[in-house]
Amino acid sequence: MTAKSMTRAAFFVLTALADQPRHGYGILRETEELSGGEVHLRVGTLYGVLDRLTADGLIVLDREEVQQGRLRRYYRLTDDGVAALDAEAERMAAGAGAARRRIAEGRRAAARPAAQDPAGLEPPTAPGLAGGFA
Amino acid sequence: MTAKSMTRAAFFVLTALADQPRHGYGILRETEELSGGEVHLRVGTLYGVLDRLTADGLIVLDREEVQQGRLRRYYRLTDDGVAALDAEAERMAAGAGAARRRIAEGRRAAARPAAQDPAGLEPPTAPGLAGGFA
DNA sequence: TCGATATATATCGGCGCTCGATATATCCTG
DNA sequence: CAGGATATATCGAGCGCCGATATATATCGA
What we know:
The structure is a homodimer. Chain A has 4 helices and 3 strands. Chain A is α+β, with helices and mostly antiparallel strands. A 3-stranded antiparallel β-sheet of chain A has the order 1-3-2. In chain A, helix 1 crosses helix 2. The first copy, chain A, is elongated. Chains A and B meet through helix 1 and helix 4 of A and helix 1 and helix 4 of B. The structure holds a DNA duplex.
């Protein structure tokens, strides 16, 4: 829809991998912790995402370790992955900004109908000016 | 996944309606224009989203007009819709910020001369500082 | 005047993605 | 020794988005 924007799950996985390589289960925990429990990636979602991101060249298998009898498969971002995540972050920030500006616009419009706004209730909140989503 | 976050299409529709009531086709054009052509909501997506948002109480039918023989069905945000959009904007801004901070962290780590710290499993967990996604 | 394009609504099948359940295996704690 | 955390992986169900399709009017250029 947005030309080429990733799914939310993919975004969270890339974000979890942005600072250092991690293995699947580690991505799950990191995402949860990082978001204060807000975001909870499901196991059933993770591995499909990992495969897709690998196929798309946004992540690569970094190494495999065996810790205490358990296999750990570490992934890391590729340069394309970093670029994709960065681009997505920009789209999100732009979208959030656009939404907020328009909400403020709507509030101003709703306050307008009556004569003049009684000072003190709704601060002008500054003009939206430029910038759509992008 | 994120407790309760809306789909992208829903977000764009709510954003298009945030400043004033619009009709379906108007939402399509507004979204496209507002984003500089980046976002292109599809007709096949729109009406389903409109129905879902109405069912969820985030938008309501504002009025119906007949302009030059063509029916126009205008929708507007409810208070819940404004709140939901605002909350989503905050999640997006927070997510974008988190992603960017982590990318910067990864760059710093990569630039650091390999002092190699095999350490083991739990990376210092370090500062993290403020803010995850929320 | 005819065809293409824009406006404006709506539906439907296909498909991709997420979820929940399920499976397997090891280690730690009570 | 049972239960939970760690760690991987798969699969069916269901939902949401896309593209195609349908219907109807107005406008503009050939």
